[in-house]
Amino acid sequence: AIQLTQSPSSLSASVGDRVTITCRASQGIASALAWYQQKPGKPPQLLIYDASSLESGVPSRFSGSGSGADFTLTITSLQPEDFAIYYCQQFNNYPLTFGGGTKLEIK
Amino acid sequence: QVQLLESGGGVVQPGRSLRLSCAASGFSFSEYGMHWVRQAPGKGLQWVAVISHDGSEKSYADSVRGRFTISRDNSKNTLHLDLNRLTVEDTAVYYCAKGPWILDYWGQGVLVTVSP
């Protein structure tokens, strides 16, 4: 199974900051990567698919990049509603796998 | 709008069985592969199983293969997950999600607690 390693596992930032979360795959997955946001008690919400495509309705301050084995999620100008846990997920092959998550907290 | 509504969760003893269901609406259910994903309390997301749009193909995580069975009834727009030989490690919130590859819609989840 393809392993996804996210870093950092937690991150403190302030409203208005720019943050970057990385996701490294144990083998190349082309652009078969998605990013999700999860808030407490809620299901995950799709943010980015195909590594860099913004899901409809997601604010443009979210962006994704990368291909092969290294990927990033960037959030520019953090808003209060962005403090949550973020997961990457590969869909290059089964079993689908998720990264361990990055908890974004308010500084 | 797309809606996914899980049901069937609860508290069960180790070794027992449970059936989860997911009622889908707002999209052409029979055209999409569907997934189950679970999340243990305080932990990350773990993919469980997938079924193709017509039910002809299924795939499972190693941790549940042989114990869990995914199925669907396209006439009723319903997805199922049969959980057998449950262990305490299966305690989690179980989500159904619309595929086929990118999980663009998720249900609210249903809690399964396996406890002696």
What labels would you give this structure?
heterodimer, A: 107 residues, mainly beta, 11 strands, B: 116 residues, 7-stranded mixed β-sheet, 4-stranded antiparallel β-sheet
Give a written overview of the molecule.
The complex is a heterodimer of chains A (107) and B (116). Chain A has strands spanning 4-7, 10-13, 19-25, 33-38, 45-49, 53-54, 62-67, 70-75, 85-90, 97-98, 102-106. Chain A is mainly β and 107 residues long. Chain B has strands at residues 3-7, 10-12, 18-25, 34-39, 45-51, 58-60, 68-73, 78-83, 92-98, 105-106, 110-114. In chain B, the strands form 2 sheets. In chain B, strands 2, 4, 5, 6, 9, 10 and 11 form a 7-stranded mixed sheet that branches. In chain B, strands 1-3-8-7 form a 4-stranded antiparallel sheet, with no helix packed on it. The interface between A and B is medium-sized, with 24 and 20 residues.
Which helices and strands, and how do they pair?
The complex is a heterodimer of chains A (107) and B (116).
Chain A: E1 4-7, E2 10-13, E3 19-25, E4 33-38, E5 45-49, E6 53-54, E7 62-67, E8 70-75, E9 85-90, E10 97-98, E11 102-106
Parallel strand pairs in A: 2-11
Antiparallel strand pairs in A: 1-3, 3-8, 4-5, 4-9, 5-6, 7-8, 9-10, 9-11
Chain B: E1 3-7, E2 10-12, E3 18-25, E4 34-39, E5 45-51, E6 58-60, E7 68-73, E8 78-83, E9 92-98, E10 105-106, E11 110-114
Parallel strand pairs in B: 2-11
Antiparallel strand pairs in B: 1-3, 3-8, 4-5, 4-9, 5-6, 7-8, 9-10, 9-11
* Inertia-based shape of chain A: globular
Helix coverage percent of chain A: under 10%
Structure summary, number of beta strands of chain A: 11
Shape of chain B: globular
Give a quick account of the main beta sheet of chain A: strands, pairing sense, barrel closure: 7 strands, mixed
Distance between the termini of chain A: 36 Å
Strand content of chain B: over 45%
User: What number is the mean pLDDT of chain B?
Assistant: 98
| Main structural class of chain A | mainly beta
Which percent range fits the helix content of chain B? under 10%
Alpha carbon gap, first and last residue of chain B: 40 Å
Per DSSP, what share of the residues of chain A sits in E-state strands of 2 or more residues? over 45%
